[in-house]
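Appendix C reproduces, verbatim, an entry submitted by the partner laboratory led by Prof. M.T., so that reviewers can inspect both the input and the predicted structure.
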Amino acid sequence: MKLKRLDHVNIRTARLDVQIAWYAAVLGLTSGPRPPFGFRGAWMYLGDAPIVHLVEVADEPRSVEPKIEHFAISAEGLPAFLERLEANDVTYSVDPVPEFPIVQVNLRDPDGNHIHVDFAAEEHASPGAG
């Protein structure tokens, strides 16, 4: 067997519509085709790939000490992304990775799930890049 890539992240939420709107507005994902499961949910697409699966649950899931601390997405266009975060009143931090050519933008979705969006370090060093 040969693993190829991580396919998606599955997130349980009691606020499905809020999460769908947030992933669309903040990360630019689009809600797309999803199998007709017997429960509400949404598959949020990055291009042709449904990378975030949202599953509606009746009660807010507890996240006292989750075993998965975050998920990450690589991206280009740091200045535009920071503008999008500001426009949507999203709290974030911009954190260069020590001794690696990456800068992380750390943020949380409305349910508190930690996400970081990774950019090439040169984007952070360029004029107007936050």
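The CA atoms of residues 50 and 89 lie 25 Å apart. Additional entries are available on request from the coordinating office.
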